[in-house]
Design goal:
Blueprint (H helix, E strand, L loop, with lengths): L4 H10 L3 H13 L3 E4 L5 H6 L8 E9 L28 H12 L4 E10 L3 E9 L4 H4 L22 H6 L20 H4 L3
Antiparallel strand pairs: 1-2, 2-4, 3-4
């Protein structure tokens, strides 16, 4: 059976070789943390996430620092090593952090979705698909016009994207039992969710 282009793109990205990303990552590290890109790097993944090559659909590459998050303790005297607490576990996944940062830079756009494109020793790289809800092409699009509604504003900050729901533990239903502490929300059940 003959396979299409998207199948071969998907197979190539399962184990991307060093030659595929090495040169690109050097440029990405030298550039800004959030950069608008001409076209998506992973076309198959972008299309699966809702990307369309039309006005009002923008793709942004986001660079996120890897590693834990340290918090300084105020009012502790002595050596600098004593002024930092242990590493903190971030409650959000890095893809959600990338979406929020892109949404904060492009305030007039809404986050549709995002996907991983690479990592090196210091950074994770993601591409975030943003939608301009003021464009007539988006308002008349059959599959994208739902995002124009006011109830879908600030999706990334509210954890309503795919990455946000995964980080909140809402991907697994498990019968919505009371033992699943993330339902109905992380603040419910005396904040036992995380």
């Amino acid at each position: 059976m003959v396979k299409g282009l998207s199948h071969y793109l998907k197979e190539a990205w399962k184990k991307p070789g060093r030659e595929l990303l090495h040169g690109k990552m050097i440029q990405w590290r030298a550039g800004d943390a959030i950069e608008k890109v001409e076209r998506p790097l992973r076309l198959d993944k972008a299309r699966a996430m809702g990307y369309k090559a039309k006005r009002g659909v923008i793709v942004v590459r986001v660079r996120i620092n890897r590693g834990g998050r340290k918090r300084q303790r105020a009012g502790v005297k002595g050596r600098k090593t004593r002024k930092q607490t242990i590493r903190k576990t971030l409650k959000m996944n890095y893809r959600q952090v990338a979406e929020i940062r892109a949404a904060r830079k492009y305030k007039s756009l809404e986050v549709l979705n995002s996907y991983w494109i690479g990592k090196d020793g210091k950074h994770y790289f993601y591409e975030v698909i943003l939608i301009d809800t003021s464009k007539a092409e988006i308002k008349s699009d059959r599959t994208l016009k739902w995002i124009v509604s006011g109830k879908n504003s600030k999706r990334a900050e509210r954890g309503l994207t795919s990455a946000g729901k995964k980080g909140r533990g809402l991907k697994s239903k498990r019968g919505k039992s009371p033992t699943l502490k993330v339902r109905p929300s992380l603040r419910a059940r005396s904040r036992q969710g995380k």
